[in-house]
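# nightly structure sweep
# worker-07 picked up a monomer target from the shared queue
# config: single-sequence mode, recycle default, output format = structure tokens
# input follows
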Amino acid sequence: MRLSLRPSLRGGLLALLASAGLLSSSMAPVAVSDPVVRTYAYGSHARQTITVYGDHGPPLVILHGGYWADDPDWSRWARWFAGQGFRVYDADYRLNSDALWPAQRVDALSAVEWVARHTGSRPLLLGSSAGGQIATVAGGYGAGAWRVRGVVALSPVASPLRAWRDGGRSSASDRQRRLRGEARRLAGCAPSACPEQWLSMSTSSYVSGSDDAPLFLVHSASDFVPPAHSRDLSSAARGAGLEDVTVRTERGSAHGAALLSSRAVRGAVVKWLREHGG
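# output follows
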């Protein structure tokens, strides 16, 4: 196992700015005491790393979004969740420029297994946007509940095929058009050329019933990844026998991590995670 230490200077600066009142009120609170931060490798690829925040509490694995193509910084939210009593594992994974699907599913499962092996406990999962698609797949793959306690997904792209169709409409936004292109890059082909690959990317393909991980799915009403993604997943999961499924729709157009700017959403997410943290 490769171990590298990452200085937590950025977190310390954020804490200092917060105490001075220089952070926007729309940003989440920052824990007063910055958690211990360590980075480990769970595989041989440069992106197969996990950064750990905090040293106690139920394990929570975060899978970032970014169209399967970008690597946004989730360190602020990781620190915030650590301040809420979770031991946070911010996991990177191979992007669609590194490898085609299902490499991202493989990486998520490997990261979850790494965390379980090092903590002796099944972790919770929190995924945002494209990371929400990966997280919900991981929660249903095989007997998902045997490896994951529960999944929170913020604006999950539960159906890349729906994203492909939405992004092809004349009324599509720039973000929807980009999502369509990145989904094709993830698959390696258009849906007509490899329908099995697109089916494999759909979260609904993995629902199997009560042995799937519980789901808490959040969108905004005008999200460019519409709530229909999660409503369809919820219907499929419930139809297969999974009872613990919640879909929450907020006003506005916030997407992914931006949903956490709402105090009500933050509170609901933390409450759900604590209830399912064992």
